[in-house]
Each structure stands twice: as structure tokens, then as C-alpha cells.
Amino acid sequence: MGGTLLLLFVVVLSAAAPQVVRAAKPIPNSYLVGVGEGDNSIGILQNHIVETVNKHPNAGWTAAHNPYFANYTIAQFKHILGVKPTPQNVLTDIPTKTYSRSLKLPKEFDARSQWSQCSTIGNILEQGHCGSCWAFGAVECLQDRFCIHMNMSVSLSVNDLLACCGFMCGDGCDGGYPIMAWRYFVQNGVVTDECDPYFDQVGCKHPGCEPAYPTPVCEKKCKVQNQVWQEKKHFSVNAYRINSNPHDIMSEIYKNGPVEVAFTVYEDFAHYKSGVYKHITGGIMGGHAVKLIGWGTSDAGEDYWLLANQWNRGWGDDGYFKIIRGRNECGIEEDVVAGMPSTKNIVIKDGGSSGTAVV
Fold it and tell me: From which residue to which does the signal peptide run (predicted)?
């Protein structure tokens, strides 16, 4: 009887307790025989994952040992997946864009060829060992949009955003919120990469070069002599989300250029080499942000998104990857953010035109 009352008390107490919504934590990798929970010291690249994917009849993609992660442990791989779940209270005043279904879209689209004059769209960068993907995705999209809408070729500073946004954006190299990066562009702007580069020129002593390197300190001073920090700032007009319907996402890219997307990464994604990715095997590793630049349909009839990663060209399909489109694979369609470039602080020099921002 006493046991029954105790059980009843526990049930009632559980029901009365407030339900706290928590971000999904990386789950133990049940596929690795003999590896205990929390053991992150083994390599992220595993033969059995390559074999499982490549033998799967419906995988639709090819796995391989990507050279970029040859020396990465699971812990190091998790660390570079720097997207934190966005607090719900932050999103209450963020507008969400939708588009008319009457807008006709092409069956295939690639921002690199659509705006071939904009070389930044096809750049594949490297975030190193820092969980700065949230900053890379935002900076890459904004500089692309400066080219698309204002005919300006500019490389913007990931380091400015990473070091100076502070708690508003999250925890720097330990992860951040993509939408808040865009808010930083509206409020503070971002300097050029020349003014505040991500990697130092001497050796490798900056954000992600070494696994234990901390978030860089915000100095607000250009590394190049005679350049003034505030004069090098480039701004965004706004910061917004795009509705998760594929038509809305495609319309935004088609009209305005690449967008930043966040998604859940599983172990098998580290092994992606080619084809249209979908999760096949392995546990959750974390959240990652990348640049979405287009879409299409594979020869096998699978609709896909085309994305540029920032793990250099030693990963994936020369740094790019495709993921299945239209079913929110790994949450790829539910966290899409962007903003439009601003004419604020843009100085016309030598008779050149600054162009006009489209808002």
C-alpha cells in the first residue's frame, strides 16, 4: 500500500511540475560498438558509416572519408556545429516573408550562374575549429546580396560579427543564433574582411585554427593602417525569416539571392561526398548553418536544394552539397533567414555608383 501511495505521489508531482522545453542534446552513438556514452575522443570518420550508406538501396548519395575531417574527433566535429536553438521570445517581432503562388519559378536554379558577375556566391570558405557557422552563413549571404542588388564586390568580416556581437548573437565560437547575426547587421553593420580578417596572415593563430582557440576579442580597429573601423561598416536594411514552404524559400532566392539556413547534422553528414543527402545512419551531432544557393532535380527524380558549406573544398562535392527538397529533411526548411543590403554608410568614390538597395 505504501509503495502504491509513493508511486501515486510521484505521478502527481510529475504532472504538476512545469514542462521545460529544452534543445535536443546530441545522443549517444549506438552504432559504435564498444564506445561508451560521452566518449567523444574517437574519429568522426568511420568505415561502417561509409559502408552502411553506400550499401543502402535508397540512400541517393555517396559517402566517403572526406580529407577535411581526417584528424577530427567526434568532440571537435560537434564543436564546429555552432547553431543554437533560437529563444522563442526573440522570434516574436521577427517578420516572416511569404510569396504569391502565382510567381513562376524555374525547375532548376543556381545563383552562381544567375548572377555570374558575383564571384563571392561561389566562394567556399573555411570556419576552422570554431563554431562560427552561424556567422559565416549570414556574412556570405549579405556580401552576395550587396553584389546582386548594388553591384558591389565586397568581402565582409566574419570576425567582426563573431567577436563583437556578444551575447545578443550567442557565444561566439561556441555557437550562436543566425537571425541575430542579421539583426547585428541592421544595428551595427559589419566591416570588410580586409579591415578585420578571420585568419591571421602569420601562421594560424586566429579563430578556428587550433581546436582550443577561444572566441576572438572585439577590438573595433582595422588591421590595415589608415582604415577607419566605422567607415568600413556595411549594413542590412532588415532581418527576416522566410516561410518554411519550399515555394517561399525558392521565391526568396530567385528574387533576392542566397539565404542562410540552419539544420540538424547527423554523423553520416560528415561523410557526404556526392548525390542528394538524406539522413541514413548515426546519431545527432548538433546544428549547422550554411548558404542555400539554388535547387533542382536529380537524374533519379529527387528534388534537391543546392548549398555551399564552409568546410573548405576537402569536404563534400568540392565544398558543396545537395539535400532532398520538400520534406524538411533535418529541419532544412524551417529556419531560413535573410536581410537586404543597405545604402547606409556606402560612399561613392571615383565616380562609381553605389547602386540602390532593393527592399
Answer: 1-23
Q: In the block, which residue shows the cell 565560437?
A: 173
Q: What is the reported pTM?
A: 0.86
Tell me how far apart the alpha carbons of residues 359 and 357 are, in angstroms, rounded to a whole number: 6
Task: Evaluate whether residue 240 is within a structural domain.
Answer: yes
Reported as a single tens digit per residue, the pLDDT across 242-251 is 999 999 999 9
Q: Which domain holds residue 163?
A: 47-338
For the question of residue 222 being annotated catalytic, the response is: no
Q: Give me the catalytic one of 79, 206, 309, 330.
A: 309
Per-residue pLDDT tens digits for 48-76: 999 999 999 999 999 999 999 999 999 99
- pLDDT for 91 equals 87
Q: Which of 129, 206, 279, 288 is catalytic?
A: 288
Beta strands in the chain (DSSP E): 61-63, 96-97, 109-110, 240-242, 259-266, 272-277, 284-297, 303-308, 320-324, 336-338
133 counts as catalytic: yes
Instruction: Decide: 284 and 27 in contact? Cβ < 8 Å.
Output: yes
CA Rg value for the chain = 22
CATH number, position 147? 3.90.70.10
What's the structural domain count of the chain? 1
**What span, in angstroms and rounded, lies between the C-alpha atoms of 212 and 79?**
10
Find the catalytic residue in 133, 147, 222, 330: 133
326 part of a folded domain: yes
d(CA 276, CA 244): 20
Report if residue 5 sits inside a domain: no
For this structure, is 288 an active site residue? Answer: yes
Judge contact between 216 and 174, C-beta under 8 A: no
For the segment 232-249, the average pLDDT, to the nearest whole number, is 98
- Asked whether the beta carbons of 35 and 292 are under 8 A apart, the reply is no
